[in-house]
Amino acid sequence: MQLSSRLTAGEVSDLAGGILFGTRATPIAGVATLENAGPGDLSFLSTARYLSAFRRSHAGVVLVAPAFQSEPEGPTTRIVVSSPHIALSRVLSAIQGPPCPSWGVHPGAIVGAGTTWEGRIAVGSGAVIGKEVRLGENCVVSDHVVIGDGVCIGSECRIWSHAVVESGAKLGDRVVLHPGARVGTAGFGYARSESGHEPILHIGGCVIEDDVEIGSNTTIDRGALDDTVVGTGTKIDNLVQIAHNVRIGRNCLIMAQVGIAGSTAVNDDAILAGQAGLADHVTVGAGARVAAQSGVIGDIAAGATVSGYPARNHREVLRNAAALKRLTPLTKRLEDLARRDEQSG
């Protein structure tokens, strides 16, 4: 990727807060992976997994973790930082930044009566904002976004194209909704009757706290009676389903295609990996880790790492898998013995 402005290794080091080894004047015009970087590019090395690529790399400057600052092979101009990933992100944010929005309300947008905002706002073409909506300052409401009546949105929020925020939702400050995200939709609730499945009206809200990011085509349902809540700093990937009355704590990470059933609690700092499924009314303890494609049907203790279906201690799952692998040749030996016994009889 070409940078919008050229930098030197010294300027990158200053932005990253790192320690430079090499020439401050080394020019940088782009950013690339270790494999594809050329003499004018900045790259990064954070783990030993990519050490062989580092040794072959032609990058002009590399952000490296302290463990690799004395590596004898590879690019010689290095900037030592505690976290190369974070350092690169901060450098890019400082020099590139998000695209500057067109402040103001597009003439093709619809804004309902009684809607107010603080300071400046950017509302794109085809956006529909309902009645009595409140928005904080410096919010961006992109093209074809729909915001329902009475929604309250904090400052510095970014709501990208085709996202929907339903009535009864409340967003904190610096919330990001990526394209197609849905917040505050009706929950999936039905009661069986003689005539079939009758829908249960959901009248709770949906609260998204500060600094939450919600991926494209992710859906978060409103509560049935109480609110559905996503805690401060939590990051949610694309294509995630969060059902009614779910409560998610602070600083959680929830990866693609995770499904969380109603009234489940996910406590602070938990990580749910891709395609994990959580049954209703379970609790995931603080700091727990749920591996990809796990099926959680019972409570998970704080700090535990689980995998498999039903989800259980990850080490136990690995031991069982190893035992099963050892069982295969034993089974073959037993079959051979039985066959010989039949032949001899």
Any overview of this molecule?
The chain is 17% helix and 31% strand. It is α/β, with parallel strands linked by helices and 345 residues long. It has 2 domains: 2-95, MurE/MurF, N-terminal domain (Udp-n-acetylmuramoylalanyl-d-glutamate--2,6- Diaminopimelate Ligase, Chain: A, domain 1), CATH 3.40.1390.10; 104-313, Hexapeptide repeat proteins (UDP N-Acetylglucosamine Acyltransferase, domain 1). Strands 7-10-13-16-19-24-27-30-33-36-38-39 form a 12-stranded mixed sheet. It has a 10-stranded parallel sheet with strand order 8-11-14-17-20-25-28-31-34-37, with no helix packed on it. The chain has a 9-stranded parallel sheet with strand order 9-12-15-18-23-26-29-32-35, with no helix packed on it.
